[in-house]
Amino acid sequence: MQGRIxxxxxxxxxxxxxxxxxxxxxxxSLQGTRRNIQRWLDQSGMYPPEGAPEEYSFYALECYPTAxxxxxxxxxxxxxxxxxxxxxxxxxxxxxxxxxxxxTTNFDGLTARALGAANVVCVEVGIDTPQRTVRAQGNNEVRxxxxxxxxxxxxxxxxxxx
Length: 162
Hints:
Blueprint lengths: L3 H14 L13 H14 L10 H9 L3 H12 L6 H11 L5 E4 L5 H8 L3 E5 L15 E6 L16
Helix pairs in contact: 1-2, 1-3, 5-6
């Protein structure tokens, strides 16, 4: 597990368990800070090793034990996101029929928002709507298959995907 969100979760656990050291881990952009947190996690013996397949789901559940908590956490990022040029281009290609489906691990809704803004019908397919995979696809429709449900569906798989 790499990235800003994973680092934030690890720091949150570190600070919860060692509040007197909060100031020492304030700057997550520093490699030394991230390394110190990881060393503490490793030495505690209670957390998965760095790079383990279950890291994402473990830390997400540790920091945000309920689906509602996880939803609120991710919503703060999704709410202010806007589809940039790549998404807009994808929507244009969808409108011409060049792109008929999109498979994504993203759960930010940016693909669906870009398609909607370009007046392209987005047919979302997820773990809760598998019947849409066999539905006849009309013109000006793009089928959006969501491979990541940790946020969207409220549960997490051990490898970070749902």
